[in-house]
Amino acid sequence: MALTPLKPVILKAAVPLAASLAGFIYAWILAKKNLSFKVFSSPENGCDDSSKLFSSAEDGESSTPMNRLVIHDKKSFSEHEITGLRNQIEGLQMRELAMRLQFELYCEMKAQESLLVEVRNMLSLENDRAEFLSKEISSIETETVRLESFVVQYMSVVEQLQYWRSQNRVLQRRVQKLLRDSKAKSRLIKVQALMIKEKEEELLRNHEDFQTRVCVINKLEGEIRELRRILEQLEEEKKEVVKKLETAEAEADASKLKKEKIHRKPLKYYLEVESGDVSKEEYNKVLNELEEMKKERSTEVEELMKQYEEHHEEGEFEGGLGFVQYDSEHDLHHNDSAESDHASSKRKKFLKTLKRWVEGSEKVRVKPEIIKQSSVSCGSKKSQVSSNSRFCSSA
């Protein structure tokens, strides 16, 4: 790198020398070319003459002195050729030297060009570095400005922090005071909440009692409606039974009048002899039904009497047991009504059979005892209906 300042000076001195040397060599080469051209043209003329001589020698068979001249000419031609060749070799050597000088000059120029490229690259790098440094300096300046603004903001934030710390201390004192007040109020609120809870529980109990009473009242109203419906049904059944009893009594009176005129004979005789429509099995069946109905009527009357007495005895207890008693009496009443419905169906069936026997055939004659038994059963039914109606009215 220390020799780099000397190279431009050498380059400046060598360029004109090389140019002058190249011009000299080029002029010398042109002169040699002209000389060689003349030499080559003269031997060609000699060759033509020699060819003519050889042709004349062949034709006229020339003498020996002519042959000597030809040989002398050949020697002179070879000497001229040798000198021309020497001149060409020297010219080529000079040309080679000039080419070497040009090549060296070219190599030096290439080296200088590479150096120039390197210097240019270095200059571009230095420019880039300078630009980078300028940008970095500008960024540092902006950063310093930003840091200055940040420092200003930091100072303002520190001042605000100190202010808010003082405010925080004041607020903490207030919070402690409010906590003490809130604890006292919370104790008072707990006491009031307990009182309110007790009142709510009491209200809930009262509400539940009220709801139960409402449910019981609704249930009793439904049962009352059901009892009224049953009473109406029993009244209708009573009317139907009264009508049937009246018809049965009328038929019994008519049969009595007829039987006074006829000799009294056993029922078995009338059923077996005079009538072919009624069999012994039907007769026995009717008798069994009559006995069963008598037993059922007696048991029903006893149960009704017991229930009536229990009802009057239980009516003296407190109102809390009244609902249960009413439910049990209502269930018993339903059971009694079901039994009475079953018994009434049997009575209706028995009355229908009696009516069929009376109105079905003229040959059948029923014994007065059967009519009396039927009237007795109807009377027991009437008494049962009246007892049922009294029981329902008392309920």
From TrEMBL:
Coiled coil: 217-314
One GO biological process term: protein localization to cortical microtubule cytoskeleton
Entry keyword set: Coiled coil, Membrane, Transmembrane, Transmembrane helix
Region annotated Disordered, chain positions: 326-347
A single Gene Ontology CC term: cortical microtubule
Highest taxon listed in the record's lineage: Eukaryota
Biased composition (Basic and acidic residues): 327-344
Cited PANTHER family: CHUP1-LIKE PROTEIN, PROTEIN CHUP1, CHLOROPLASTIC
Protein name, as recorded: Uncharacterized protein LOC106771433
Organism of this sequence: Vigna radiata var. radiata (Mung bean)
